[in-house]
Amino acid sequence: MTTHIIMVKKILADGAPCRKCGEVYERLLRDGLLQHIDRIVTADPHNPDSEGMRLAARHQVSRAPFFIVRDKGGNEHIYDSFLRLKREVLQARASTTEVALDLAERFPELDYI
Amino acid sequence: MNTNLNIEQLATHQEQNDPVEILRVALEHFPSSAISFSGAEDIVLIDMALRIRKDIQVFSLDTGRLHPETYRFLEEVRNHYGIQLELLSPDSRELEQLVRTKGLFSFYQDGHKECCAIRKVAPLRRKLATVDAWITGLRHDQTPVRASVPVAQEDTAFSTPEHALVKFNPLANWSSAQVWEYIRNNNVPFNELHRRGYISIGCEPCTRTTLPNQHERAGRWWWEEEALKDCGLHVATAEPSRPQPAEVA
After folding, report:
1. How far A38 CA lies from chain B's nearest CA (Å)?
2. How far apart are CA B133 and CA B129, in angstroms?
3. Would you say the C-alpha torsion A45, A48, A54, A58 has a positive or negative sign?
4. A38-63 as b/e, with b when 16 or more CB fall inside 10 Å?
5. Smallest CA–CA distance from A13 into chain B, residue
6. CB–CB of B206/B107 below 8 Å?
């Protein structure tokens, strides 16, 4: 991997990760992709100065988790979709369920089908 | 597929037209169009389409969790109209994996998206890969995210670089009252759950009746409003409490 990847996860008041962050972490672990994540930083909504909150504000991201990918040229790219990160950066195959879940999350009008 | 059809122009032009005319355009330009039927009041699409053509293609997503009344209604529709109603099932391996790891009611804790992805979106995606256009019962008055749905659009969710897909929403500009007026005036069969206070009908664990003047959204995934805030990255004054599974209607 020639890029540098930061995962920003949100922590709740009890210190546990938010639901989605926990799920994505589990998927990274299960798929053997965690090794490609160089750093995991936390966003604590009760502490605006936490590194994750500062990164969220800087990149204008409103939901966790998200990923900051720095390419070989030093340019930063934001991925707020784990599926896109998995396919485009980690170049891993996505399962049928992952593709469907990504669609369900990006297109809320599909809720009532 | 008629590639000369300009969907954007069509949407604008058809905006004031009635659903039957929109259906006619869909069925004429895209002979393989398929109607997505949810087992609720979108039954009017089938009734209207059959007045245009007898060999329409209709499918429903059989999530495995629908109300018994909805299954009975699907069968009633099949017999009443004499159509082949294609029922699409979830991938058994994906579904078994979900149930094995998270149980049968994970949506009350984790939100409905994962379950819907497996039971609805994936089978739908599989089906839509085989047609050039599909027809839905989406209406502006159903939810805020549907308020701007056009009557015809390129389907950005399910189109791929290799396969362009068009979505028609003939009822987009109709109100719920207009739909029900059509049902009454044309003796169209309807799901008996509507008699019992259900407005929006989905899977049994995720649907409940609504009170008078409540929005139909209140009858679906009612426990999630707080849960969805879980992943928001806004400076907090107090952490939202974890939602509890609500009583199932």
Report:
1. 22
2. 10
3. positive
4. eebebbbbeeeebebbebbeeeebeb
5. B239
6. yes
Contact criterion met (CB below 8 Å) for B122 and A97: yes
Domains of chain B from N-terminus onward: 7-195 (3.40.50.620)
A11 Cβ partners below 8 Å, 6+ apart? A17, A18, A42, A43, A44
Please write the tens of the pLDDT for every residue from B144-169: 777 788 899 999 999 999 999 999 99
Domains of chain A (ranges, CATH numbers): 4-81 (3.40.30)
Question: What is each CA distance from B53 to B20, B83, B92, in whole angstroms?
Answer: 11, 11, 34
d(CA B218, CA B143): 10
Rg of chain B in Å (alpha carbons): 19
Task: Among A43, A111, A113, select the one facing B36 at the smallest CB separation.
Answer: A113
What is the pTM (predicted TM-score) of this model? 0.82
Cα angle B201, B95, A12; round to 5 = 80
B206 given a catalytic annotation: no
The string of pLDDT tens digits covering residues B93-131 is: 999 999 999 999 999 988 898 999 999 999 999 999 999
Chain-chain contact of B231 with A63 (C-beta, under 8 angstroms): yes
Residue B37 CA: distances (Å) to CA of A33, A112, B26, B69: 39, 11, 16, 15
Please identify which residue in the block is written with the tokens 């390419």.
Answer: A71
